[in-house]
Design a protein that fits this description.
- With 195 residues, the chain is α/β, with parallel strands linked by helices.
- Helices cover 41% and strands 16% of the residues.
- It is built from seven helices and seven strands.
- A seven-stranded parallel β-sheet has the order 4-3-2-1-5-6-7, sandwiched between helices.
- Helix 4 links the parallel strand 5 and strand 6.
- Helix 1 packs parallel to helix 2.
- The longest helix has 16 residues.
- The chain is globular.
- It starts with 5 loop residues before the first strand and ends in a 15-residue tail after the last helix.
- The mean pLDDT is 91.
Protein backbone atom coordinates (compact mmCIF):
# COMPACT_ATOMS: atom_id res chain seq x y z
CA UNK A 1 0.00 0.00 0.00
CA UNK A 2 1.21 3.49 -0.74
CA UNK A 3 1.08 6.37 1.69
CA UNK A 4 -2.54 7.42 2.37
CA UNK A 5 -3.86 10.72 1.06
CA UNK A 6 -5.82 11.43 4.23
CA UNK A 7 -5.68 10.22 7.82
CA UNK A 8 -8.32 10.55 10.53
CA UNK A 9 -6.75 11.13 13.92
CA UNK A 10 -8.64 10.16 17.08
CA UNK A 11 -7.27 11.58 20.34
CA UNK A 12 -8.03 13.44 23.55
CA UNK A 13 -9.87 16.72 23.59
CA UNK A 14 -8.43 17.16 27.08
CA UNK A 15 -5.00 18.44 28.01
CA UNK A 16 -2.89 15.51 29.26
CA UNK A 17 -0.79 15.73 32.41
CA UNK A 18 2.10 14.41 30.31
CA UNK A 19 3.19 17.67 28.62
CA UNK A 20 5.38 15.89 26.06
CA UNK A 21 2.28 14.28 24.52
CA UNK A 22 0.99 17.68 23.42
CA UNK A 23 4.38 18.43 21.84
CA UNK A 24 4.36 15.07 20.04
CA UNK A 25 0.78 15.58 18.85
CA UNK A 26 1.72 18.98 17.39
CA UNK A 27 4.85 17.52 15.80
CA UNK A 28 2.78 14.71 14.29
CA UNK A 29 0.39 17.22 12.74
CA UNK A 30 3.37 18.97 11.16
CA UNK A 31 4.73 15.64 9.96
CA UNK A 32 1.45 14.85 8.21
CA UNK A 33 1.73 18.18 6.37
CA UNK A 34 5.34 17.45 5.40
CA UNK A 35 4.35 14.01 4.10
CA UNK A 36 1.52 15.54 2.04
CA UNK A 37 -1.15 13.69 4.05
CA UNK A 38 -4.42 15.52 4.71
CA UNK A 39 -5.59 15.60 8.33
CA UNK A 40 -9.17 14.65 9.17
CA UNK A 41 -10.02 15.35 12.80
CA UNK A 42 -12.85 16.16 15.16
CA UNK A 43 -12.77 19.93 14.65
CA UNK A 44 -12.01 21.05 18.20
CA UNK A 45 -9.35 23.37 19.60
CA UNK A 46 -8.74 21.59 22.89
CA UNK A 47 -6.26 18.99 24.08
CA UNK A 48 -4.26 16.74 21.79
CA UNK A 49 -6.92 17.20 19.10
CA UNK A 50 -6.17 20.91 18.86
CA UNK A 51 -2.42 20.33 18.95
CA UNK A 52 -2.48 17.95 15.97
CA UNK A 53 -4.56 20.43 13.95
CA UNK A 54 -2.40 23.42 14.86
CA UNK A 55 0.77 21.54 13.96
CA UNK A 56 -0.59 20.49 10.59
CA UNK A 57 -1.90 23.97 9.80
CA UNK A 58 1.31 25.74 10.80
CA UNK A 59 3.30 23.41 8.54
CA UNK A 60 1.07 24.26 5.58
CA UNK A 61 -1.02 21.08 5.60
CA UNK A 62 -4.67 20.57 4.71
CA UNK A 63 -6.91 20.26 7.78
CA UNK A 64 -10.53 19.13 7.64
CA UNK A 65 -12.50 19.39 10.86
CA UNK A 66 -15.77 17.51 11.37
CA UNK A 67 -17.66 19.08 14.23
CA UNK A 68 -21.09 18.12 15.65
CA UNK A 69 -23.49 21.02 16.16
CA UNK A 70 -23.33 20.51 19.95
CA UNK A 71 -19.67 21.61 19.82
CA UNK A 72 -20.10 24.39 17.26
CA UNK A 73 -19.17 27.08 19.77
CA UNK A 74 -16.35 29.63 19.78
CA UNK A 75 -14.78 28.10 22.88
CA UNK A 76 -14.54 24.65 21.26
CA UNK A 77 -13.79 25.01 17.55
CA UNK A 78 -10.59 26.23 15.95
CA UNK A 79 -11.43 29.02 13.53
CA UNK A 80 -8.09 29.65 11.91
CA UNK A 81 -6.65 26.23 11.13
CA UNK A 82 -9.27 24.60 8.97
CA UNK A 83 -8.94 24.25 5.25
CA UNK A 84 -12.50 23.03 5.63
CA UNK A 85 -14.84 22.74 8.61
CA UNK A 86 -17.92 20.57 8.26
CA UNK A 87 -20.71 20.93 10.79
CA UNK A 88 -22.72 17.72 11.16
CA UNK A 89 -25.89 17.02 13.19
CA UNK A 90 -24.39 14.70 15.81
CA UNK A 91 -21.68 12.34 17.00
CA UNK A 92 -22.76 9.43 14.81
CA UNK A 93 -22.62 11.60 11.71
CA UNK A 94 -19.21 12.90 12.76
CA UNK A 95 -17.72 9.41 12.91
CA UNK A 96 -19.36 8.38 9.65
CA UNK A 97 -18.04 11.46 7.87
CA UNK A 98 -14.51 11.09 9.28
CA UNK A 99 -14.55 7.44 8.20
CA UNK A 100 -15.73 8.44 4.73
CA UNK A 101 -13.00 11.09 4.30
CA UNK A 102 -10.10 9.03 5.68
CA UNK A 103 -7.88 6.44 4.00
CA UNK A 104 -6.41 5.34 7.35
CA UNK A 105 -6.76 6.01 11.08
CA UNK A 106 -4.27 6.96 13.79
CA UNK A 107 -5.18 6.75 17.48
CA UNK A 108 -3.25 8.86 19.98
CA UNK A 109 -3.87 8.82 23.75
CA UNK A 110 -7.41 9.74 24.69
CA UNK A 111 -10.37 9.01 26.89
CA UNK A 112 -13.69 7.26 26.37
CA UNK A 113 -14.56 9.26 23.24
CA UNK A 114 -11.29 8.20 21.62
CA UNK A 115 -11.81 4.58 22.70
CA UNK A 116 -15.31 4.58 21.24
CA UNK A 117 -14.08 5.94 17.89
CA UNK A 118 -11.21 3.47 17.82
CA UNK A 119 -13.30 0.41 18.64
CA UNK A 120 -15.93 1.29 16.07
CA UNK A 121 -13.46 1.50 13.15
CA UNK A 122 -11.65 -1.58 14.50
CA UNK A 123 -14.97 -3.48 14.51
CA UNK A 124 -15.70 -2.27 10.99
CA UNK A 125 -12.32 -3.66 9.88
CA UNK A 126 -13.11 -7.00 11.52
CA UNK A 127 -16.47 -7.36 9.77
CA UNK A 128 -15.15 -6.24 6.40
CA UNK A 129 -16.75 -2.81 6.07
CA UNK A 130 -13.36 -1.32 5.21
CA UNK A 131 -9.74 -2.19 4.50
CA UNK A 132 -8.02 0.80 6.02
CA UNK A 133 -5.04 0.72 8.33
CA UNK A 134 -5.55 1.51 12.00
CA UNK A 135 -2.39 2.61 13.82
CA UNK A 136 -2.44 2.79 17.61
CA UNK A 137 0.29 5.14 18.81
CA UNK A 138 1.38 3.66 22.13
CA UNK A 139 2.97 6.81 23.56
CA UNK A 140 4.97 5.96 26.66
CA UNK A 141 3.12 2.66 26.93
CA UNK A 142 -0.29 4.35 27.30
CA UNK A 143 -2.05 1.57 25.38
CA UNK A 144 -0.02 -1.36 26.75
CA UNK A 145 -2.79 -2.41 29.20
CA UNK A 146 -5.33 -2.30 26.38
CA UNK A 147 -3.09 -4.40 24.14
CA UNK A 148 -2.66 -6.94 26.95
CA UNK A 149 -6.41 -7.04 27.36
CA UNK A 150 -6.89 -7.66 23.62
CA UNK A 151 -4.38 -10.51 23.88
CA UNK A 152 -6.48 -12.01 26.69
CA UNK A 153 -9.58 -11.72 24.48
CA UNK A 154 -7.77 -13.78 21.82
CA UNK A 155 -6.70 -16.32 24.45
CA UNK A 156 -10.34 -16.61 25.55
CA UNK A 157 -11.33 -17.44 21.98
CA UNK A 158 -13.47 -14.33 21.61
CA UNK A 159 -11.39 -12.67 18.89
CA UNK A 160 -9.28 -14.18 16.16
CA UNK A 161 -5.52 -13.67 16.26
CA UNK A 162 -5.72 -12.26 12.71
CA UNK A 163 -7.93 -9.45 13.98
CA UNK A 164 -5.54 -8.73 16.86
CA UNK A 165 -2.58 -8.78 14.46
CA UNK A 166 -4.34 -6.39 12.06
CA UNK A 167 -4.05 -3.61 14.66
CA UNK A 168 -0.81 -1.79 13.92
CA UNK A 169 1.06 -0.50 16.97
CA UNK A 170 3.59 2.33 16.81
CA UNK A 171 6.03 3.56 19.43
CA UNK A 172 6.93 6.85 17.78
CA UNK A 173 6.10 9.24 14.95
CA UNK A 174 8.37 7.51 12.44
CA UNK A 175 6.68 4.18 13.20
CA UNK A 176 3.27 5.74 12.61
CA UNK A 177 4.23 7.05 9.18
CA UNK A 178 5.87 3.76 8.20
CA UNK A 179 2.86 1.69 9.30
CA UNK A 180 0.41 3.93 7.46
CA UNK A 181 2.04 2.76 4.23
CA UNK A 182 1.88 -0.93 5.15
CA UNK A 183 -0.31 -3.39 3.25
CA UNK A 184 -3.73 -3.59 4.92
CA UNK A 185 -4.35 -6.96 6.57
CA UNK A 186 -6.78 -9.33 4.85
CA UNK A 187 -8.99 -10.81 7.53
CA UNK A 188 -11.16 -13.93 7.49
CA UNK A 189 -14.77 -13.39 6.45
CA UNK A 190 -16.50 -12.79 9.79
CA UNK A 191 -19.76 -14.40 8.65
CA UNK A 192 -18.37 -17.52 7.01
CA UNK A 193 -15.10 -17.90 8.93
CA UNK A 194 -13.24 -18.23 5.61
CA UNK A 195 -10.34 -16.13 4.29
Amino acid sequence: MSKPESVAVFCASSQPRQASWADRARSFGARLAQEGINLIYGGGARGLMGQVAQGCHEAGGRVTGVLPTIFDRPDVRLKVVHSELEIVPGMHERKARMYELADSFVVLPGGIGTFEEFFEVYTWLQIGLHRKNIVLWNMDGFYTPLLSFLDSVVEAGLMGHEVRDSLLVADDEDDVIRLLGQEVAKLPDKLSGRK
